[in-house]
Amino acid sequence: MIIFTSLPKCPYNISQLQEAVLPIMVICLTKGAGVLPDGPLNATLGGTMVFTTTLTPPEKPFTFVEWKFGDQSIISTNTNATADYEGRVTLFISTGSLELRNLVLSDSGEYRVLIIPQGGSILEGTIRLEVYGEQIFHFSTDLVEFNSSISLKCSASGISLSFLWLNSSSEVIQSDRVQLTDGGATLTIVNVTRYDQGPYECHVFNPVNSDTSEPLTLSISYGPENVNLNVKVSKGYYLEGSNISLSCSAVSRPAAQFYWLLNGAYLNDTGPEFKLVNIQMSQSGNYSCQAFNNKTLRYETSQSSAVTVLERISGTAVTPSTNLPIEGNSVNLTCDAAAGSIFTSLWKKDDSDLILTDNMALYEENRVLSFKSLNNTDSGKYSCEISNPVSNDKAQYIMIVKYGPENVQIKGPSKIDFGKTLTLTCSAESEPSATYTWTLNGTEIYSSSVFTKVITELSDSGSYTCQAMNNIAERTSSAVHQVTVTAILGETSGCSAGCIAGIVIACLAVCAAAGGGGY
Ligand SMILES: *[C@@H]1O[C@H](CO)[C@@H](O)[C@H](O)[C@H]1NC(C)=O
Ligand SMILES: *[C@@H]1O[C@H](CO)[C@@H](O)[C@H](O)[C@H]1NC(C)=O
Ligand SMILES: *[C@@H]1O[C@H](CO)[C@@H](O)[C@H](O)[C@H]1NC(C)=O
Ligand SMILES: *[C@@H]1O[C@H](CO)[C@@H](O)[C@H](O)[C@H]1NC(C)=O
Ligand SMILES: *[C@@H]1O[C@H](CO)[C@@H](O)[C@H](O)[C@H]1NC(C)=O
Ligand SMILES: *[C@@H]1O[C@H](CO)[C@@H](O)[C@H](O)[C@H]1NC(C)=O
Ligand SMILES: *[C@@H]1O[C@H](CO)[C@@H](O)[C@H](O)[C@H]1NC(C)=O
């Protein structure tokens, strides 16, 4: 918008202008008429002027007084000051004088007073006022970057005036956007930017004088831009119940107002700081902030920041698919937590990282350790650590693989003399330990691992079988051991007299039996 201010309208002619020397302003001669002295009156911009009548206060107050500027009424005894003069004028009713304050250049012109005394005839007078100075006029509405254009008008009275505009003390340079018109008096900035705020000064001069206006700074609204969401200690994952502090910033004039969004939907919160206290899993999502400039009416939204709230992992346990891990069977060990979301599972065996054999496999993101066919070497302490970015927990399971019996062995002599004690020891590899059953020639004779007997009969010879049994695995395995009883008398070395007597008695019984048997 361009505002053209009215320059002083002087009833001058060229010859008068040529005679004018100092000050540079045009002097307009006006004939004082009637109740006002001869003019013109000179005043400076921003100053005060009292238009004093030549009347002395009458005994009876005037019936009516009115002041006019050109054709426009300023104030009268019947009416208040009109809009342009509100607060700037005082009418002195006793003398009919007028005070005009805060003078502007456009106050230059002809003033007229009309006075009706009580019972008297109408009195009139006119006088000219010249206000001197330079003033930059501009329209004062808010300027918006990239949207507004503005014209600055340098207004001054005088002849052969030249104008020089300064922007922050540097001379204004014309461009597509910056135009000087009206003989340099008008500076037009098209499509203002934030850098155009000035301050601007207008320097007016002619060959004999010069003056500079007060500096004028433009208020240009811009932004918001560079809207940035900051998260203190940003990690993306938060433990349920923790507090999060978000802040938002933007380049904006005037300062932006901030709104907060979760997954693109507005929250009730506003302001540059946003706190989430005792955050719950349901508050997980993408947070962003939006900046709004209520002058430019522009919005801009920040990048979004993902917030994932996780429950603390607790109640972790390793559960086997069977309580009886038997060799050759398959078993799954499942690691799980009662609460909390699991991101990773890590298995260890006997406190070392688990080395997967062909027999093992991991399923369900490592939560299930599966054995295809158990081996007794798979026994051990299995521990599992599960974790998410905010917590972790551990559990362990001791797996004892039930196997065997295997490798059944019988230890003992294969030949034995009469009267000696036969001791046969049976062993087997088994988990749990095997139970043992002895048979001689197929007849069960004893059940325990160590079989002892004093040899008294030839029929103690034979096939001694030890059967080992794993009651859990319900498996048996056996070994056979041949024992021959030898009947050589008196050749026993290292035997005491009593011992020999015993053998003899035994021999007698055996021999008798043998004899009876047909020897
Ligand atoms: C104002 O300036 C901006 C940036 O220089 C440009 O994008 C925009 O189109 C201009 N607007 C007008 C009306 O010239
Ligand atoms: C005013 O000066 C600033 C800073 O040098 C410059 O960026 C801007 O374009 C100037 N504006 C005008 C209207 O001269
Ligand atoms: C416009 O924004 C400014 C700065 O944030 C604020 O002070 C002012 O109250 C706002 N005006 C309105 C009408 O909302
Ligand atoms: C959050 O943003 C990410 C990446 O932009 C997207 O994959 C995800 O689906 C978003 N989450 C929600 C809840 O919208
Ligand atoms: C800026 O200009 C555009 C297009 O001319 C208009 O739609 C918008 O309302 C203007 N914004 C302001 C704040 O004046
Ligand atoms: C072990 O888990 C795997 C994969 O889930 C499954 O295919 C298999 O049947 C399970 N075995 C047992 C013994 O539960
Ligand atoms: C077992 O068999 C052996 C040889 O076949 C025989 O000498 C022995 O007398 C038998 N013992 C019993 C108790 O049957």
UniProtKB/TrEMBL annotation:
InterPro entries: Ig-like_dom (IPR007110), Ig-like_dom_sf (IPR036179), Ig-like_fold (IPR013783), Ig_I-set (IPR013098), Ig_sub (IPR003599), Ig_sub2 (IPR003598), IgSF_CEA-related (IPR052598). Residues 117-219, 224-308, 327-401, 405-486 form the Ig-like domain. Keywords: Disulfide bond, Glycoprotein, Immunoglobulin domain, Signal. The keyword Chaperone does not apply. Gene3D superfamilies: Immunoglobulins. It holds the Pfam family Ig_3. It comes from the Eukaryota. SMART domains: IG, IGc2. The keyword Chaperone does not apply. This is Ig-like domain-containing protein. It comes from Sparus aurata (Gilthead sea bream).
